Amino acid sequence: xxxxxxxxxxxxxxxxxSVYEKLGIxxxxxxxxxxxxxxxxxxxxxxxVLSNEPYDASKAIEAMxxxxxxxxxxxxxxxxxxxxNEEIRLARLERKKR
Length: 98
Known about the structure:
2 domains
């Protein structure tokens, strides 16, 4: 395994590290991800952007509650993972028939 070293401004490193920590990864992982995707894409691979707005967990929680209500209305809120996967499999088979 190779070690890659390069120089970067202290402030830039600190800011980038802060962004990656908010995404749940460390600086080394982010750089490895970038390099792997660069190879796969044969170029600059992707962007990861955090909203400038503060994270509002209440929106995510309300979305999950809404999905739960819809699931209950449709009668599938008690389905097991195996049952869900079987439904998906059958839907894919039906789509292929068309």
